[in-house]
Amino acid sequence: MNFLIISILLGIIILAMAGIAIIQKNIVVAIIAAGALSLFASILYLLLAAPDVAMTEAAIGSGLSTIIFFYVLNRIRTTDERNEE
User: Fold this and answer.
1) What CA–CA distance (Å, rounded) separates 82 from 76?
2) Which of 20, 29, 33, 72 is buried deepest, with most CB atoms within 10 A?
3) CA trace torsion 12, 15, 17, 19 (10° rounding)
4) Which residues contact 57 (CB under 8 A, 6 or more apart)?
5) Considering Cα of 44, then 28, then 56, then 58, what sign does the dihedral take?
6) How far apart are CA 75 and CA 45, in angstroms?
7) How far apart (Å, rounded) are the C-alpha atoms in residues 79 and 5?
């Protein structure tokens, strides 16, 4: 019973994070929401007895993708500042 409640709660949180990532106008908040979505998905995979998928999702989906998004955002802002001068 507890497993079902936790799974439903994680599913609702994942849907909420996906909605925030899609609707949010602030890019930084959208990137953080997408990273949180991947983190909660990895927790759900762990509860579903798929630790290899959970570790991959946590490392690549939550960690690496978020870092790459922030790196690209920083590069875009730096390039825009240089072009304005």
Assistant:
1) 10
2) 33
3) -140
4) 38, 41, 42, 45
5) negative
6) 33
7) 47
Tokens of 24: 């949010």
- Which residues, other chains included, contact 12 with Cβ-Cβ below 8 Å and sequence gap of 6+? none
Which of 69, 39, 31, 35 lies closest to 55, judged by CA? 39
DSSP readout, 7-74? HHHHHHHHHHHHHHHHH-SSHHHHHHHHHHHHHHHHHHHHHTT-HHHHHHIIIIIIIIHHHHHHHHHH
Residue 79: HSE in the Cβ half-sphere, 13 Å Cα cutoff: 6
Question: Which residues, given as ranges, of the chain have pLDDT below 70?
Answer: 80, 85
5 phi, psi to nearest 5 deg = -65, -45
